[in-house]
Amino acid sequence: MANATAAAEPESPRLTRLLGEVHARGREALDLFWRELAQEGAPLVEPVPGAPQERLVTVVWREDRPVAGVYLLANRVTDKHRARRGMMRRLDGTDVWYVSLRLPLGLRCGYRIHPFGPDDPHLTPDGPRSGSSRGLPDDRMDPFNRHADGPFGSLIELDGAPSLTEWTEAAAPSPAGRTDAFDFTAADGTGYRVRRFVPDTGPSAGAGLGLLVVFDGEQWFDRYGITGAVTSAVAAGRIPPLAVLGIEAGADPAARMRQLGASTPFIDMLTDELLPAVTAELPGWAGPRRTVLCGQSLGGLTALATALRRPAAFGTVLAHSASTWWRPGMTGRPQAAADGSETWLYEQASAAPVGDVRVRVDVGCNEGTMVDDLHRLHKLMEARGFDISLNVYTGGHDHSCWAAALIDGLADTFARKDAPVR
């Protein structure tokens, strides 16, 4: 099977040294290597001669059962059409499987390791049958990675990557306030599950209590710990006190697309029904100018559509990796890119009236045509007079990147000298 063994010398200087040590001292050298890795953490990160803006990143796996191959899935680095890059090799005569990648400084990406047993139908001579973690039966975090037990799992983080301190800091303060969940029924009878966090602000709120509204609320509240991250950012002085509202989208992809596919009824429900109902019970709410809407992927699409359709409802919109491929009527992502016509978002932005809402768009440099789509959208909206900025980070379609962009976007919003305070 492809890449089952490889006697060629590895690119990594550390693994080259290990190979010599194993030949000289046998199992003793190998055991020492694994102990050092457990202490120092993974992946291995080494300089690239003549390329100061790159690092050689080596992910290793310790064989614990017979395998036909091992695959590293690194978000937008070795997934999708790049999957073959993620196939590991065995270090000759050892239980070490590895893959080395030259990666740019500033990169952050999540990764997982997939060992394939003998005759596993998911493994082909060219690598994994699918470049996605979906459907691969043995799916593991890297036990040597210091983030493996954290909210984002195993991470490759190189110097210059935006801070994730608020999300991963073990000593983060416990959220002081009230967290609850409730069911909200819209006027058309549609039901929504909503999460809510209201901090104990006391007199420190100053200009009033801001509000952050996020899509995919179940993920941000349950899996990633948004209330703790916001509390940490407030304690660090990066942002003012904020309540957080999270609208659940659910696990069903079709239902999520119906809700977050720039749905006009959903946008109108959010701005005309849910938001007024919640803010009426929010003590000291500072008003729409200090209310922020944030979404990712399809949620980023819907956040931008909300900024265009209902600009007065929010002071700021943060859109991460917005799904520019989407058009009305779609029930799934198309297999092929559009034929050169402009995106639906671009068409909407061409015709929408310029509103008094700030828009910050974040997208990863590894997200393919989406980057060009959003550059064109930014150029159009800026030329038309929208208050819009575009940040291209070094990464992909990744919650760890979006989490950093979320706190950075909030800090930027409230740090601006002309930030409204009413």
Automatic annotation (TrEMBL):
* Location(s) in or outside the cell: Cytoplasm
User: Which Pfam families has this protein been placed in?
Assistant: Enterochelin_N, Esterase
Where would I find the Enterochelin esterase N-terminal domain in this sequence? 57-167
Q: What molecular function terms (GO) are annotated for this protein?
A: hydrolase activity
The region called Disordered is annotated at 117-144
Query: Which superkingdom heads the taxonomic lineage of this protein's source?
Result: Bacteria
Ranges in coiled-coil conformation: none
- What InterPro entries does UniProt report for this protein, alphabetically? AB_hydrolase_fold, Enterochelin_esterase_N, Esterase-like, Ig-like_fold, Ig_E-set, Mycobacterial_A85_antigen
For this UniProt record, the keywords arranged alphabetically read as follows: Cytoplasm, Hydrolase
To which protein family does this belong?
A: Belongs to the Fes family.
Stated name of the protein:
Alpha/beta hydrolase-fold protein
What is the scientific name of the source organism? Answer: Streptomyces kunmingensis
